[in-house]
């Protein structure tokens, strides 16, 4: 059958201008996640409209290639980025949940990517491709069984991601209470002079580091005998990696000299220095050996990011939590707008003189380390669930596995 015979692309929905509706921007759509990372409420002016039961996918590079999309569930009627495509089953021939997974198959994804037109770096799906597509789908009973199996996997994945978020929030609350508000165990008996508890010290960021270096980017293809490959973590990857999703990290090629000092190690921090959105500056990732093991190759951070190597695990945890606190509370200053491209660049040299409190009693840091350890374990579990689901999807769709 033809794709458009039973599937609507960008179906019409009426929204009232100025009225508040659920709103989802591209930045809040995860990589290969069934649900958005977050849903805001915003007055409708314009944008792509969707409702529960719709499947929503990015139409622009590299978001489409990275797998950005979601199934609209428990949202109601809402809108989002103009860079979304919305798909809806026209009738009972195609189950809406099955449609979401069908749209994730290689055949559909490659067809959309192959149709892209426009300027390099901003290419978009040509909607005419859907007029040409021939598709084959199983009967409705088989569709519903396939969707139920894959939905069950995604339920586990979503629950895992929610657990990661809760653990991250718990670590941040604990850090703020003990290290910012100074309501730590034994604070009543502790002498505090000029905001520094007895047995603690105030240190500059620079004094907490053994090493730091800017990011690299590399080439699309090998350029010579001494060219080596490495995965490159960008600022745009940080939120997904924190939720355990490592699939979007690009592979790039570098000279041996470029990689000598840039390879990430456990305990390193990736710090995002530049972004068009000021609110994204300062996004951080604390690197763990489990993350490096899952990726399985040399890993560096991209241009616009900085590799920070603290003195030890205690300094890594304290500095990571402090940057997180400053970034999420809007206190990460100063930054400066630079150039005509609208990119905001953080004043990293100034930040090196920013001071943080570091306790000499490592026991005060252990509860946060334990929370971070649970986060890393949950990230590893997420990666395994995602891999299992993605192996299962094509086998179910092709009929290789009986249901």
Could you tell me the strand content as a percent range? 15-25%
Biggest sheet strand line-up: 1-8-5-6
Shape: globular
Query: Could you tell me the radius of gyration in angstroms?
Result: 23 Å
The count of β-strands is 22
Uncertain runs are none
Structure characterization notes:
This protein has eleven helices and 22 strands. The model has no long low-confidence stretch (mean pLDDT 93). 34% of the residues are buried. The chain folds into two domains: 135 residues, DNA methylase specificity domains (Adenine-n6-DNA-methyltransferase TaqI, Chain A, domain 2, Alpha-Beta Complex); 220 residues, Adenine-n6-DNA-methyltransferase TaqI, Chain A, domain 2 (Alpha-Beta Complex), CATH 3.90.220.20. A four-stranded antiparallel sheet has the order 1-8-5-6. It has a four-stranded mixed sheet with strand order 3-2-7-4, with no helix packed on it. Strands 12-19-15-17 form a four-stranded antiparallel sheet. The chain has 403 residues and is an alpha+beta fold.
